[in-house]
Every structure is written in structure tokens, then in C-alpha cells.
Amino acid sequence: MTDIPVPSYRMRPSHGGGPPWRMIAVGGGLAAMLVAGGAIAWGLSRGGARTVPLIEADARPFKVRPDDPGGLRVPNQDELIFERSRGSTAQPPPARLAPEPEAPRIDALRAQVAQPPPVAAPAPSAPARAPAAEAPPQAAPAPAPATAPAAAPPARVAPAPNGAIRIQLGALTSEEAARAEWDRLARRHPDLLGAFRPQVVRFEREGQPPLFRLRTGGFADIASAREYCERLRAERIPCLVVR
């Protein structure tokens, strides 16, 4: 053994190089202090006096008259029928009573009734007239021209036996509406639709409500169906030939 003194820090045993716990403890304390200070500052800022927001109505006008309102232009549309006093201080004339009704003169009426009526002078006699000359014989009136016979009413259209061609008169939103439309057309045009019978066909549409097609038929060929449709269109009834 030697007598050389050894520093005390060299005599401390080594623990294998672990983490510096003292530095970790100091850093954790500083972080906790920062968090606590931030929480206190936030609480103080939230606890101060605050104003309540005031909601006001919109100051802009609700309705604005356009410069050009459009629409139908009528002559003298801005003139007033009765003139109104616009700030005038003139007073209206005072009202006046109507004059009293005229009273009958009783004395004049009695004197007029008491007087005798005047006697009318006899009328002079008319001179005798000479016998009228014999009128010359007149020619016999010419016979009236014969009137043309009245046009015969159009023949009533009827379906052909075993006719397979049909026509369509419209497409409505319900079966009741389709049958009501047929009744209305048949009452107005019995000569065209009186002999036919209605046929209501349901038509499905994707994503939309169905339609009900109003049809009738019984035509021998397409030509006769087209001719019939022309007669219906002349009466302003829609018509389409269905093959």
C-alpha cells in the first residue's frame, strides 16, 4: 500500500451508466410549473367581464320597387280618376239644402174645374170623291225559286266487325280521369264516339307515377283509322293511330 491520497469522487461505486434521474426530476418540475401557470392564465382570461352579443334587424329595405315593373302597358294607367287634395288648405264649399217642393195652387185648380168645357166647332164636310179609276191588271207574281235541299247530317261512325286497329285519345294520371274524359267527349260528339267503347290501358314508367292511356278501336285498316282521326282533330280532339 502507498500513502498517496485518492480523491473521494473516485471512490464512488459505478452503477453501470443509468439515466440521470436528477435532471429528469428537475425537467418534470419545470414542465409542471409551466402547465400550472398556463392553466391559471387561461382561467383568469375566461373569468373576466364579457359583453352579450346584440342581434339587430336588417336595416336594408324588405321590398324595393323596380325601375321597370314590366307587365302590360295600359294607356293613362297612372292618371287618377278622382283628383285628391295633396296638401291643399282650401276648405270645401258648404253644403246647401235643396229648394222646397212647389206647393199646388188649390184655388186655380178649383176655378179651372168650375169652368164649362169649350164647345168644338163642327168639322166641314169633305167633298165627295170621284170614283177611283179601275186599276190595271197586274202580272202574276213569278214563282219563287226552289230552295236547295238541306245537307244531310253526317253518318254516324261505327266500328268495323273484327277491326283490330285502335286509336289513342289521351294519357291521364288515373283511370277515373280517363273514363271521365271519355264520357265528356262522348256527350259532346255522339255522332263520332257514340258507337265506340272506351279502353283504358295502364302504362308503367320508371321512377314516375303510371299513366292511363284512353283508347278505342275497331277499324278495319290504318287508312280508315287515319281518316277517323282527321275528323276528330277537326273537332279539336287529340287522336293518334296505334298499330
From TrEMBL:
Ordered alphabetically, the record's keywords are: Cell cycle, Cell division, Membrane, Transmembrane, Transmembrane helix
Q: Where is this region: Disordered?
A: 115-157
> Locate the SPOR domain: which residues?
159-243
UniProt keyword annotation of Cell division present: yes
Q: Which domain of life is it from?
A: Bacteria
Q: Where is the composition biased (Pro residues)?
A: 115-125
Membrane-crossing residues?
Answer: 20-44
Task: Kindly indicate where the leader peptide sits in this chain.
Answer: none
Q: GO terms for molecular function, please?
A: peptidoglycan binding
Composition bias of kind Low complexity appears in: 126-137, 147-157
Please give the biological process terms from Gene Ontology that the record holds: cell division
Name-wise, this protein is: Cell division septation protein DedD
Q: Which organism is it from?
A: Neoroseomonas alkaliterrae
